[in-house]
Design brief:
This protein is an all-alpha fold. The protein has helices at 3-15, 17-27, 32-46, 55-69, 72-89, 97-115, 125-140, 145-162, 186-201.
């Protein structure tokens, strides 16, 4: 497990705290950036203690840290995703590209189940699902991890941007009705930042 990439992801989330909070303030609770960055700070603090852990142990550790330090829906959703990903990687000392495909799929299923949502409802899934589908396609065609993530990043960005024109049907944003249209979803944005950071760090 590349702890240097995990550290970079934490740093990016912390750096984008105000931007994510502002996006969420317009159509949500206004706490996405604050909550998520608090979780990222806790994970970053614990990274030195993760040296030597198996990949699934790292993901489980991160999930527990988010669950106990991040309020709101985002903490539960990201923690659920990490736990599902950890379960998919259990027993593996080395993570192969096809293992990432399987883990990513299980993470999405976990978010869908926990959030009772799917693609097209102005959530993080609008970033994660297109990115996953692009990534899976690249891996299945024999591309390496870096190339697959670079292609996934492009689909993730398009997915994130697509939330601007969507009517929110999940979460606090649903109260705004038509007024939720015209704003990019904060969860879709944080998911994009994570994928972009991984793609750039491989």
């Amino acid at each position: 497990m590349r702890l240097d990439i995990l550290n970079k992801v934490c740093e990016i989330i912390i750096e984008n705290r105000d931007n994510l909070t502002e996006l969420d303030r317009v159509i949500g609770d206004g706490d996405h950036g604050v909550n998520l960055s608090r979780g990222a700070e806790k994970v970053k603090e614990e990274i030195p203690k993760m040296e030597g852990l198996k990949p699934f142990e790292v993901l489980n550790k991160c999930a527990m840290l988010l669950m106990s330090n991040v309020g709101g829906a985002s903490g539960a959703l990201y923690a659920t995703a990490l736990m599902k990903g950890a379960a998919a990687l259990k027993g593996k000392d080395e993570v192969l590209p096809e293992d990432v495909v399987n883990a990513w799929n299980d993470m999405i299923l976990g978010i869908e189940s926990r959030g009772k949502s799917t693609k097209g409802e102005k959530t993080m899934l609008d970033t994660l699902i297109p990115a996953y589908e692009a990534f899976k396609s690249e891996i299945e065609s024999g591309k390496d991890l870096k190339v697959a993530f670079e292609v996934a990043e492009k689909s993730a960005k398009a997915g994130m941007e697509s939330t601007k024109d969507m009517l929110a049907t999940k979460g606090r944003a649903t109260y705004l009705g038509e007024r939720s249209i015209g704003h990019i979803d904060a969860g879709a944005t944080s998911s994009y930042l994570i994928i972009k950071t991984i793609a750039e760090s491989l």
